[in-house]
Every structure is written in structure tokens, then in C-alpha cells.
Amino acid sequence: MAARHFLTLSDMTTAELEDVLDHASRLRKEWRNGQTRDTLKNRVLAMIFEKSSTRTRVSFEAGMTQLGGTAMFLSSRDTQLGRGEPVEDSAIVISSMVDAVMIRTFGHDTVERFAAASSKPVINALTDDYHPCQLMADMQTYRELRGSIKGATVAWIGDGNNMCHSYMNAAEKFGFHLNIACPEGYEPSSQLMEQHAERITLVRTPEEAARGANLLATDVWASMGQEDEQKAREKAFSSYQINPALMTLADNDALFLHCLPAHRGEEVSADMMEHPASAVWHAAENRLHAQKALLEFLILNRLD
Ligand code: CP
Ligand code: NVA
């Protein structure tokens, strides 16, 4: 049987995503009650990082250990991948030795090529185009704190980047409407805009996007790999900040999410992080639980 991969949210059906999130919430409770499980005993996850990470590395590595398995950190700086060994050759070899592979890299085509040659499940842990693991944690958080997101309105304020793209996929999968507010020249992929046209409204001001929304989300103005654009982006995005004043336009029960790391004073005001609507720390912890559920789903083909 061909391995199941998780390169974008589109790799799973809505029912599968909901099942994984239900399981993630169970795992969250177990973890908080001090219960342990060994469903992935003797299983190994290879983690390939070509970009920096705190949450992703810690959550996958801790998650595998908590399920009885192990995780192996592979940096492109000291594997043959960094010296030009073809992605496909690396995929054949690595997947012959482990039970799943997680990759954080630049071009999305790299994870697609790796997955095509891999005999084991491949998980996208962020590419320039998508960050589906973060969306699993964000969706888990919303449903734990507010219930189903179906029919809700989500406001994405800021760059039309990898996180925005995954929110666009999530709008389709989870049945919410997405208002995207971004400056000209920083829109999300036009192909995704067309694909999800009925679920998305593109506006130019944060206020238009935030009005009546149930969830406000944002991300840094310059993503990893765009460090040279920081100054130009600071100018273009200067009015695209989520702060308590913007939150007053949203629904009274609206939540605020940010995948982190956050740049206080840029895309988010310092006081927004601890605002009563902020669920950023809850969502950060949920990276652990959502990915443990995802690992069980992909490696065992079932949720125990
Ligand atoms: N949100 C997120 O993916 O964080 P890291 O870059 O620290 O992994
Ligand atoms: N858009 C950000 C997300 C970091 C988790 C980046 O790609 O750097």
C-alpha cells in the first residue's frame, strides 16, 4: 500500500481531519492528566530541517518520545542533502530505515519530490508555500475553545504567505469564510484564490477583514528566507497590525491566533499577546497534541 502523506490539508478528507483533531484533544487531556501511551513504540521519525524552528522541532521530538518512539534531527548542514545528494535518493534511503519523515524546507516541490520517492509517510513541517501542521493546531484550538468553526468568519491580516495559504485550504476543508487583508503586491497565490474563490474575500484594510470575525490571525511580515525584504515589508505592512483596538471590531467572542514566533510592535501589538482573546499559547501547545494524533494516523493508519 502506498504511504499516506501530509503535504497540505488537501491530502486528507474533512472527516479524517476532524477525527485527527478529536484524537488530538483526547491526547491533550491525557498529557495534562499525566497519562502515558506507547502506540509508537520502536517507531522512528526522521526530521529534516533546512530552516530554523523551535515549536516544530520540540513538538515532533517530544511527541514521538511521549508515544514510545524516537525522533532523529537531521540538519541539511550536516547530511548529504546539503551537499547535493538528490532528494529522491535521500528519500529512498531514509524511508527504508524509519517509519515517517518530517521535512521543513524552502520550495514546496522539495517535499513533493521527497514524498513521491518515499516508501513511508512524509509530513510537511513548513515550506515557502504551506504550513499545514500549524493549521491543525489552530483548528484544534478554535474547536476546543469555541466549538465548530463551520460557518464562522476568519480574518487573516497580513502577508499572503505559507500560513495564509494553509488558512485558505482550511477554509475549504472546515467550512469557514476567510477575509484576507493584505497590501497590494503581497496577495496569496492567485491559483489558490481561484480554487477557493467562494470561501474567500480579499480586502485592503484590516478593519474590513476584522469586522464581525470570529477569529483573527496573523504572522510575521517577513518569513524565513525573506530577511533581505524586512525593511520594505515593514513599510508596506505598517498599518496591518492586530491590536486590542482592531479586536473591538470583531465578534465579542473572537479569538486571536499567531503561529509564532511573534514580532511585537509589528504584526501584533505587545498587549495583544496577553489579551483575553489571545489563544496563542494554547495553540502553541496544541502543536504537540495535533502532531501526535497525526503521527498515529499516518504511521498506524488508525487512531488508538
Ligand atoms: N509556528 C512554528 O512553526 O514555529 P517554529 O518555527 O518555532 O517551529
Ligand atoms: N511564515 C513564517 C512562519 C513561521 C512559523 C515563515 O515561513 O517564516
Characterization of this structure:
By secondary structure, the protein is α/β, with parallel strands linked by helices. It has two domains: 5-131 and 287-300, Aspartate/ornithine carbamoyltransferase (Rossmann fold); 134-284, Aspartate/ornithine carbamoyltransferase (Rossmann fold). 40% of the residues lie in helices and 14% in strands. It has eleven helices and nine strands. The protein has a five-stranded parallel β-sheet with strand order 7-6-5-8-9. Helix 2 (55-66) packs across helix 11 (280-300), helix 3 crosses helix 4 and helix 5 (132-146) crosses helix 11. The longest helix has 21 residues, at 280-300. It is globular, with a radius of gyration of 19 Å. The protein starts with 13 loop residues before the first helix and ends with a helix. 48% of the residues are buried. The mean pLDDT is 97. Bound molecules: phosphoric acid mono(formamide)ester and norvaline (NVA). The site of phosphoric acid mono(formamide)ester has 8 residues, from helix 2.
